[in-house]
Amino acid sequence: MGVFRSLEALEPEFVPERLPGREAELSEIAAALKPALKGGQPQPLFIEGRTGVGKTCCVRYACNSLADEGNVRIVYVNCWQVYTRQGVLAELARQVGEALPRRGLAGDEVFQRIAQACKKEGVIPIVVLDEVDQLLARGEGGVLYDFTRSRELTGAAVGVVCITNDHEAFSRLDERVRAAFIAGRVEFKPYTPKQLREIARERATKAFKPNAMTDEALGVCVARGAREGGDCRVTLNLLLAAGRRAEARNAERVEAEDVPREATNASVEKKLSRLNQAEETLLELVGDGVLSGELYAAAEKAGLNLGERSIRTYLDRLVKNGFLEFEERADKGRTRFYKRT
Question: What is the pLDDT of residue 268?
């Protein structure tokens, strides 16, 4: 019994054998990284696009092809979890086998040690910084200068790939760093309904037993993803949820009625595909309404250690994009009261 064959194909980390609709972007990424195979400096890449359009999947696909080569080392960093220059360098050091002493070292010294280790072993690391906007929001973008100028600074080649769904992140780069990324700036457009259907059908074939996913149910999932701005993640999440509902009723086929109904709150629908993790957290903390000072304190308590300036930037974006609204209040000086739209 049951409708699933394997859940792997519906998981966010899954890298398929084909990437429908992303052939051009994949070719561009592969060409930028290819110099590493011959000991050269890879082109720095800055990859932009909203959630669910295949950015990370394409980068993983291209990097997997390079990882089979002995001289290339892929270092994947989620900047939501590692969000300082020192943290990124420590992770790079660990993955290239450079043991750091217990005593603290300055970032420049750490980078020099990493460079020496790479040159000694003949290794070229390619550092993938997913959600790089988290680094920039905390003022830790200096590590991008390290990587884009590594050959000049240390004699060692280091590749860097930045991934973000924040369309304003590129403008927040230091001017010197921004120049290094201009030639390697890649924008991922939303998937078309046709592309979403092709992806969904291929993933469903792997995830579900033969004939367990009906065309009607798959079509509903695709339509929802298309309405969310071509968001593949929404479509795949709905396929997973629909399958689980079918199994809960001991069915052998997933029907259209198994697909979860649409949320009635428009901001919840938009949140599925348009917000990064910091924005999602802030939206949740706002709740039914909160004063800005209380919100800053709640954000810090929730582990969102961005600083008030960065939090205000995210709040301004949430207001601009229609998720929040605010009113000015006089409460021990001027303050804002935020609430959801």
Answer: 45
Residues 162 and 95 in one domain: yes
Are 51 and 146 within one domain? yes
Residue 273's Cβ-count burial label (10 Å; 0-12, 13-18, 19+) is buried
Task: Identify the domain containing residue 139 by its residue range.
Answer: 23-187
* 278 vs 21, residue with greater confidence: 21
Instruction: Give domain status of residue 6, yes or no.
Output: no
* pLDDT for the residue 216: 95
DSSP string, 6-62: -SGGGSTT---S--TT-HHHHHHHHHHHGGGGGT-PPPPEEEE--TTSSHHHHHHHH
In a domain, 18, yes or no: no
Burial 328-341 (b: 16+ CB within 10 A, else e): eeeeeeeebbbebe
Q: What is the pTM of this model?
A: 0.78
- What is the tens place of the pLDDT at every residue in 255-268? 999 998 864 344 34
Q: Is the pLDDT of residue 90 over 80?
A: yes
* 51 and 146 in a common domain: yes
More confident residue, 13 or 33: 33
**Same domain, residue pair 251 and 304:** no
What is the number of domains present in the chain? 3
